[in-house]
From TrEMBL, chain A:
It comes from Novosphingobium nitrogenifigens DSM 19370. GO terms for cellular component: plasma membrane. Keywords: ATP-binding, Cell membrane, Ion transport, Membrane, Nucleotide-binding, Potassium, Potassium transport, Transmembrane, Transmembrane helix, Transport. Its main location: membrane. The system is composed of three essential subunits: KdpA, KdpB and KdpC. InterPro entries: KdpC (IPR003820). It is a single-pass membrane protein. One of its GO terms (molecular function) is ATP binding. This is Potassium-transporting ATPase KdpC subunit.
From TrEMBL, chain B:
Belongs to the KdpA family. Part of the high-affinity ATP-driven potassium transport (or Kdp) system, which catalyzes the hydrolysis of ATP coupled with the electrogenic transport of potassium into the cytoplasm. This subunit binds the extracellular potassium ions and delivers the ions to the membrane domain of KdpB through an intramembrane tunnel. This is Potassium-transporting ATPase potassium-binding subunit. It is found in: Cell membrane. The chain crosses the membrane at residues 70-89, 138-160, 181-202, 257-277, 289-308, 337-357, 378-403, 423-445, 491-512, 532-556. It comes from Novosphingobium nitrogenifigens DSM 19370. HAMAP family: KdpA. Its main location: membrane. The system is composed of three essential subunits: KdpA, KdpB and KdpC. The lineage of its organism: Bacteria, Pseudomonadati, Pseudomonadota, Alphaproteobacteria, Sphingomonadales.
């Protein structure tokens, strides 16, 4: 037994060093190099630019609060929509905190679909359901002085349907929709509030 | 978004199952080549690397090891890699690629994390984006995603050899198995797969944070890094340790429904391949298909329950005026079908990655993931550990069948005698011992009771899930529990270590014992280990041995919560 231990000691140490270098340094470095060359947009976080400024990522929710913008789902990430602290609420289905929160939110937001009153898994969910978007159309249209039918048509255009009819759920990317709104009305955040 | 299961949801589940079954043979063939040590087309490129690894570490890959030598080599390697990771995590503050100046991890957290990754658990007592530098993610964690997976497959290979070989004491060479599986299976697939993930939207950069000013003028700090290279092997190796706190629910880890399908498939890919490889190794591929069939029966039953529960939604919220499915803790792009399917896949295998918060699942919806792990993660299971865990149950099943008809049991040409059955029971008993023992301790000690976020039976479920996940080397969690305390870090690390190696060593001992036996040809009196009767017996034994053991604990957690919920109680 002792002989077995002694004869395996050198391989254990050397193999650790070799495999850590191969899989912990060479592998991620090679993948990074190729990824940056082939898919720079995705590899760097699918960033959205306005001029030179980064205004966010297509894939990460931002905490829109103004009436003239579509709002994302509630977030439990940090103080809300904080990418340095991704998190769900982790509340149990029987948690009083959850049931009380939802009951209060239902009163304040009559008719809101279920995804608008439940926190997402990541706290950074960039999408809402088409129903949740349509539920917000009247508010956004009024704040933007646009016909509701026009905003509603924008929601339809922004709706992504499941691939092949079953892969994924119908959803609307909130940031893309809000950018389309800004383009349509030719104004930015401050004037849209 | 309305309540209830949909056709498209079931279409996803059935398409996923069909592709999984179609993967079994091609991946099994590749695994079989590595099992036999045959040359593959990749040897032309990676052969020199393999030979260099052997030369530098002074190994003769053709020198066969007894089960004891195999086990000693395996264990020493685990200790060496664990120490390397512990050192990197402790020294994080002074190592490069740490632009945010993150401090080193505390001793108990670094120890827990090292054990967690060595054991293929990837329990995360830390939040990746706020705790670990890019170097720590890459160099301290990613190697284990490869090596713990390769170790699991190596031990499975040794057990296959035990069944396949006759009258020898040798079960293979650990170093050769480890190196071949890593170089010719895991590394090439992970590299290609990582690039596919990047194309799908997963970041891959050495940058750490990006400052953004949102449309409404707020400041947002985006966290990026070498995510895709970690994500690929985390799924393929059934590791499950995410780059980010919320794991594959994070849009950067799992941006679209297509990526989500790929991630689920890659959790099962090698596990199903190993069932085919086992059949081939023992000279009868029907044996592998029989095992896979039993696995799929248990898998689809679990999916059905969880999907049904999540799609039906929460009656307490319905009563509060919010109809619809249970979307608390789920992402819009996945909905209930892809979330329920992912949860069952990740716990059927020993992956533990999550794309939804299991803590917020319905009581019975969340019970299935827990139950899957408690069965021993043998429904496809972790890479390597799934098939050897399943074979332990197969040994029990032929033993019980043998008792019923009064014959010495045989399985795939080997007589199963007292020694093998004792070792199998020893390995299986580890699960209830650590899960129920650890939960019992935590449920009475103040340090344990300080953990749960939720109150009532769900709080107990959080503790039970933690010890279930750690012992089963799964790594998923009812994430509300505050487990980064010396108490939980210590106790869960013990559970992870025992759950992994007190299973692996008996498995290797069984391999050694079987290898010495003669071949016993099948006769008219042998119990057939293919066909519906055998599959039914396997499923029955797994549910009775695995299930009944945990029923009392589950009654105190999810079942009590279900009853309370139906009575309108909140906590």
């Amino acid at each position: 037994m002792l002989n077995d231990v002694l004869s395996s000691t050198r391989p254990a140490i050397v193999m650790t060093g070799l495999f850590f270098a191969l899989t912990g340094l060479a592998y991620p470095a090679a993948v990074t190099g190729i990824a940056q060359a082939l898919f720079p947009h995705q590899a760097n976080g699918s960033l959205v630019h306005q001029g030179h400024a980064v205004i966010g990522s297509e894939l990460i929710a931002q905490g829109f609060g103004g009436d003239g913008y579509f709002h994302p789902r509630p977030s439990a990430a940090g103080k809300g929509y904080d990418p340095t602290a991704s998190s769900g609420s982790n509340l149990a289905p029987t948690a009083k905190a959850l049931v009380d929160r939802v009951a209060a939110d239902v009163k304040a937001n009559p008719g809101a679909p279920v995804d608008m009153l439940t926190t997402s898994a990541s706290g950074l969910d960039p999408d809402i359901s088409p129903q949740a978007a349509h539920w917000q159309v009247d508010r956004v249209a009024a704040a933007r002085h646009l016909p509701a039918a026009q905003v509603s048509a924008m929601v339809d255009r922004a709706t992504q349907l499941p691939l092949a009819g079953f892969l994924g759920e119908p959803h609307v990317n909130v940031l893309s929709l809000n950018l389309a709104l800004d383009r349509a009305t030719g104004k930015g955040a401050n004037s849209a509030r | 978004m309305t309540a209830g299961m949909t056709l498209s949801g079931w279409a996803l589940i059935l398409v996923f199952t069909a592709i999984t079954l179609a993967l079994a043979k091609p991946i099994g063939l590749w695994l079989f080549a590595l099992y036999e040590g045959r040359r593959t087309p990749l040897h032309r490129v990676l052969g020199p690397v393999e030979r260099a690894f052997y030369r530098l570490s002074g190994i003769d890959p053709t020198r066969e090891q007894t089960w004891r030598q195999y086990a000693v080599a395996m264990l020493l390697f685990q200790v060496a890699t664990a120490l390397a990771t512990y050192a990197i995590l402790r020294l994080q503050a002074v190592l490069p690629l740490n632009p945010r100046g993150l401090p080193g991890l505390s001793g108990d957290l670094a120890m827990n994390t090292a054990v967690s990754f060595v054991t293929n658990t990837n329990w995360q007592a830390y939040a990746g984006e706020s705790t670990l530098s890019n170097l720590s993610q890459m160099l301290a964690l990613v190697p284990h995603n490869f090596l713990s997976a390769a170790t699991g497959i190596a031990v499975a290979f040794a057990l296959f050899r035990g069944f396949a070989r006759r009258q020898t004491q040798f079960v293979g060479n650990f170093w050769a198995d480890l190196t071949r599986v890593t170089l010719y299976l895991l590394l090439p697939i992970a590299a290609v797969y990582a690039l596919v993930l990047v194309a799908g939207g997963v970041p891959q950069t050495f940058a750490s944070t990006i400052d953004a000013t949102t449309l409404e003028g707020a400041h947002q700090t985006l966290v990026v890094g070498p995510v895709a290279s970690q994500e690929a092997i985390k799924m393929l190796g059934t590791n499950g340790g995410g780059f980010f706190n919320v794991n594959s629910a994070h849009p950067f880890e799992n941006p679209t429904a297509i990526v989500n399908l790929l991630e689920m498939l890659s959790i099962f890919a090698i596990g199903v391949g190993l069932t085919w490889c086992f059949g081939k190794a023992v000279g009868d591929t029907r044996q592998g298909w029989a095992i896979l069939s039993a696995m799929m029966v248990l898998f689809l039953a679990g999916v059905a329950v969880t999907y049904w529960q999540e799609a039906a939604g929460n009656p307490l919220l319905h009563h509060a005026g919010l109809p619809g499915a249970n979307m608390e803790g789920k992402e819009t792009r996945f909905g209930t079908a892809a979330s329920a399917l992912f949860a069952v896949v990740t716990t059927a295998a020993s992956c533990g990655a999550v794309n939804a918060m299991h803590d917020s699942f319905m009581p019975l919806g969340g019970m299935i993931p827990m139950f899957n792990i408690e069965l021993g993660e043998i429904v496809v299971g972790g890479v390597g550990s799934g098939i050897y865990g399943f074979l332990l149950f197969a040994l029990l099943a032929v033993f019980i069948a043998g008792l019923m008809v009064g014959r010495t049991p045989e399985y795939v040409g080997k007589k199963i005698e007292g020694r093998e059955v004792k070792l199998a029971v020893l390995a299986i008993v580890v699960l209830p011992l650590c899960i129920l023992g650890g939960t019992a301790l935590a449920a009475v000690l103040p340090a344990g009771l300080a953990g749960p976020l939720n109150k009532g039976p769900h709080g107990f479920s959080e503790i039970l899930y933690a010890f279930t996940s750690a012992t089963g080397n799964n790594g998923s969690a009812f994430g509300g529990i505050s487990a980064n305390t010396p108490f939980y870090n210590g106790l869960l690390a013990i559970a992870m270590w025992v759950g992994r190696f007190f299973m692996m060593v008996p498995v290797l001992a069984i391999a050694g014992s079987l290898a010495q036996k003669k071949y016993t040809p099948e006769t008219a009196g042998s119990f057939p280990t293919t066909g519906a009767l055998w599959i039914g017996l396997l499923v029955g034994i797994i549910l009775i041995v695995g299930g009944l053991t945990f029923l009392p604990a589950l009654a105190l957690g999810p079942i009590a919560e279900q009853v309370a919920m139906l009575a309108g109680t909140t906590f």
